[in-house]
Specification:
Blueprint lengths: L2 E5 L4 H10 L5 E6 L12 E6 L5 H8 L4 E4 L6 H5 L3 H7 L1 H12 L8 E7 L22 H19 L3 E7 L1 E3 L12 H10 L4 E3 L6 E2 L1 E3 H12 L2 H4 L3 E3 L6 E2 H16 L6 E3 L19 H7 L7 H19 L1
Parallel strand pairs: 1-2, 1-4, 2-3, 4-5, 5-6, 6-11, 7-10, 8-13
Antiparallel strand pairs: 9-12
Length: 326
C-alpha cells in the first residue's frame, strides 16, 4: 500500500482529492491547518493530522515516509491577498521551498518520492485567442500567478536534481461542492449560485461572452488519481486540465439563475453587466479554453460530468446547505 500524504487536505480541492484517494488501497495521511474530513467507507488506511505547513519541522513530520506527496496548499486570500499580504508568499512559495529541502535531506535508495502539485492555468498570463495546451510561454500578470509559477519552477528544478519526481497539474476554473467542513468553494460559480439563492442580480464585469473552462471538482480530483499511475511519463512537466469547451460566463449565469428559480419557484434573477473594479486583473476579460490532450494521451483522463449536470448538483448542494443553516 503506497503511503500518500495530502497537504491542504481540508480545502475545497483538497477535500475532493482526499475523498477520491480514500477509495483506493493506500495509506492516506490528510494534513491541513484544520482537521480534514476523510470518508471512511473506502479501503484506504487513513490518518488525519493538523499542522502549520509553513513550519519546516511540521512539514517534515507530515511527509515523513511518504511515497507520494500531493501539494494542494494555497493561501486562502487568493489573488487579492497575494498583492499585499506577505503571508501569501510564505504559503504559495515557502511551502514548496521547504518541501524540496525536506526531501533533499531525506534522500534514500529507491525512486524519489512523487510530488503532485496544484498549479494554475492562469500562470501563463494573458492567454492567446486559441486553446492553451501548456506549450505557451509563461508571462504571469498577477502576484498570485507569479507565486504559483515560482513554486512550480522550484518543483521542476528539484526534479532535475533527482530530489523528487515533480508533476504540476495546472488547474482550470474549478467549481462544485464537497461534503466536508471548511471546504467551501469561493469561486465564481459558487458566488453566483449564492447570489441567486439570495435573490440578488448576477453581475458580470463584461458583456458575458468571455469564456472560462469550467471543470467540476470531482473531475479534477480524478485527474490527480490518474496522475499517480504515470509518474515517469509526467515527471518534470506541467500539464493543463480542462474540459476543452470554453463556456461563456453569461450563459453560465443565466443557467444558474434558471436552475435556482426552478428550485425556489420564483422568477430567475437578472444577469447584468457592471463596471469592473479598478484592480480587476486583465485576465478576467480574456477568454480561456484549455486543450488537455497532452495529459489525456498519457493518463486517459477526461472530464466526465457534463456542465449542466455539474451546475445542477452545485445548486442543489448549496441550496441544501443554506436551508440547513437557517
Amino acid at each position: 500500500m503506497p503511503a500518500i500524504t495530502v497537504l491542504g487536505a481540508s480545502g475545497f480541492v483538497g477535500s475532493a482529492v482526499t475523498a477520491a484517494l480514500a477509495r483506493h488501497p493506500v495509506r492516506l495521511r490528510a494534513v491541513a491547518r484544520r482537521p480534514s474530513f476523510v470518508p471512511g467507507a473506502g479501503p484506504a488506511r487513513t490518518e488525519v493530522r493538523t499542522a502549520d505547513l509553513t513550519s519546516p519541522d511540521e512539514l517534515a513530520a507530515a511527509v515523513s515516509g511518504a511515497d507520494v506527496v500531493v501539494h494542494l496548499v494555497t493561501h486562502s486570500g487568493g489573488w487579492r491577498a497575494a498583492e499585499s499580504d506577505p503571508a501569501s508568499r510564505a504559503v504559495n512559495i515557502g511551502v514548496m521551498e521547504n518541501l524540496c529541502e525536506v526531501l533533499r535531506r531525506r534522500r534514500a535508495d529507491g525512486p524519489p518520492p512523487l510530488v503532485l502539485y496544484a498549479g494554475a492555468a492562469s500562470q501563463i498570463g494573458l492567454p492567446p485567442g486559441t486553446p492553451i495546451d501548456g506549450s505557451e510561454p509563461d508571462h504571469p500578470g498577477t502576484a498570485y500567478d507569479r507565486q504559483k509559477l515560482g513554486a512550480e519552477r522550484l518543483l521542476k528544478a528539484a526534479t532535475e536534481e533527482g530530489v523528487l519526481r515533480g508533476v504540476s497539474l495546472r488547474l482550470p476554473t474549478v467549481f462544485g461542492h464537497v461534503a466536508a467542513p471548511h471546504a467551501e468553494d469561493r469561486g465564481v460559480v459558487a458566488f453566483m449560485v449564492r447570489r441567486a439563492l439570495a435573490g440578488e442580480p448576477l453581475t458580470l464585469w463584461h458583456d458575458g461572452t468571455v469564456k472560462r473552462d469550467l471543470v467540476h471538482v470531482e473531475d479534477v480530483a480524478d485527474a490527480f488519481v490518474a496522475a499517480l499511475g504515470h509518474p515517469d511519463a509526467l515527471a518534470g512537466g506541467h500539464w493543463l486540465l480542462g474540459a476543452g469547451r470554453g463556456d461563456p460566463l453569461g450563459d453560465v449565469c443565466r443557467t444558474v439563475a434558471a436552475l435556482v428559480a426552478a428550485r425556489l419557484g420564483k422568477p430567475p434573477v437578472p444577469v447584468v453587466s457592471v463596471e469592473p473594479p479598478a484592480d480587476a486583473p486583465a485576465t478576467d476579460f480574456r477568454s480561456v479554453t484549455i486543450d488537455s490532450s497532452p495529459f489525456r494521451r498519457v493518463t486517459g483522463w477526461r472530464t466526465r460530468i457534463p456542465l449542466h449536470t455539474a451546475l445542477e448538483r452545485t445548486v442543489t448542494a448549496l441550496a441544501g446547505a443554506e436551508a440547513h443553516e437557517k
